[in-house]
Design goal:
Strand 4 (about 105) and strand 5 (about 115) form a beta hairpin. With about 210 residues, this protein is an alpha+beta fold. The protein is built from 8 helices and 6 strands, in the order αββαβααβββαααα. The chain has 2 domains: about 1-130; about 150-210, no CATH class. The strands form 2 sheets. The chain has a 4-stranded antiparallel beta sheet with strand order 1-2-6-3, with helices on both faces. The protein has a two-stranded antiparallel sheet with strand order 4-5. About 35% of the residues lie in helices and about 15% in strands. The site of one iron/sulfur cluster has 14 residues, from helix 6 and helix 7.
């Protein structure tokens, strides 16, 4: 089941697909949906990417429901289905946590999910399910090494330079208030605050953009 789901999503435009075992990380009404299908698309988080991520989520839901399993798609951005149960989950559910647990990459010093091939350029979405999909191996450590490019170039000095690991997942990597105020003061893209310098400067995955 996992191989054919992954193949279908990759054929439909996903850049990366991983399965995470989230047993113990979820609570309340969604605790039983403890497998996560983490989907990454290598593009900027713009309208087209969001539409593609949502399409891939729908495919995943259809695939799993057809085999008798329950699903819950967590939207990739905050503007979807305002006021609904899933729109509340959007703010509570961390797509990066699902992605590292699904083996798609580590959390870099810029606080973002870094894939070895695509760097911080994957936009993420997650579908939770009770399907017994075999989990991929989680990523355990930060592979940024000595690099500090994102810290040195962040215009709001928001990046602390600390390193993430699965055993200390909540170390402060980015002073999010500083990042947020800077983004809000910057020129807006499609009506949304933006910066993203810590994405553009990261050496991981850069080859994709030049070639
Ligand atoms: C809120 C938010 C913001 C806020 C942050 C405010 C805040 N208080 O969190 C602001 C506006 C600053 C922001 C900025 C950006 N964001 Co944003 N944001 C989010 C959002 C909605 C939630 C993130 C969140 O939960 N934050 C809470 C904090 C505490 O968690 P965290 O530090 O981000 O991550 C920690 C945990 O994941 C934990 N962790 C990691 N692995 C594991 C494993 C386990 C088992 C556990 C328990 C924990 C754990 O460790 C991490 C580091 O401490 C997500 C979408 C989503 N629902 O996931 C997008 C998201 C994280 N953003 C994204 C992007 C692209 C950006 C920007 C680049 C946008 C831009 N162009 O400016 C910047 C980058 C800033 C930066 N360097 O982080 C992408 C990241 C893609 C990627 N490859 O990582 C996401 C996933 C959206 C998406 N659908 O793709 N964002
Ligand atoms: S988005 Fe901009 S302000 Fe925020 S951490 Fe990245 S480089 Fe710094
Ligand atoms: S720029 Fe360097 S330190 Fe920052 S996330 Fe990328 S590899 Fe890690």
């Amino acid at each position: 089941m996992k191989t054919s789901l992954r193949k279908e999503l990759l054929d439909q435009g996903a850049t990366g697909v991983g399965i995470a075992d989230l047993r113990g990380y979820l609570s309340g009404e969604i605790a039983h949906l403890d497998r996560a299908v983490s989907i990454g698309v290598d593009r900027r988080l713009n309208e087209n990417t969001l539409n593609l991520l949502m399409k891939l989520q729908k495919r995943t839901v259809r695939f799993l429901k057809a085999r008798g399993h329950r699903t819950l798609a967590i939207p990739p951005d905050s503007d979807r289905r305002k006021g609904t149960f899933v729109s509340q989950l959007y703010a509570l559910f961390n797509h990066k946590m699902a992605a590292t647990s699904a083996g798609l990459g580590w959390i870099g010093k810029n606080g973002l999910l870094i894939s070895i091939d695509h760097g911080p350029r994957l936009s993420l979405a997650t579908v939770l399910t009770d399907a017994p999909l075999r989990p991929d191996a989680p990523v355990e450590h930060c592979l940024c090494g000595e690099c500090l490019l994102c810290k040195d170039h962040c215009p709001s000095q928001a990046i602390t330079g600390s390193q993430w690991s699965r055993s200390s997942p909540f170390v402060e990597l980015v002073r999010l208030d500083q990042c947020r105020s800077h983004k809000t003061s910057k020129r807006q893209t499609s009506g949304k605050p933006n910066c993203g310098l810590c994405v553009n400067i990261c050496p991981f995955g850069r080859k994709d953009e030049s070639g």
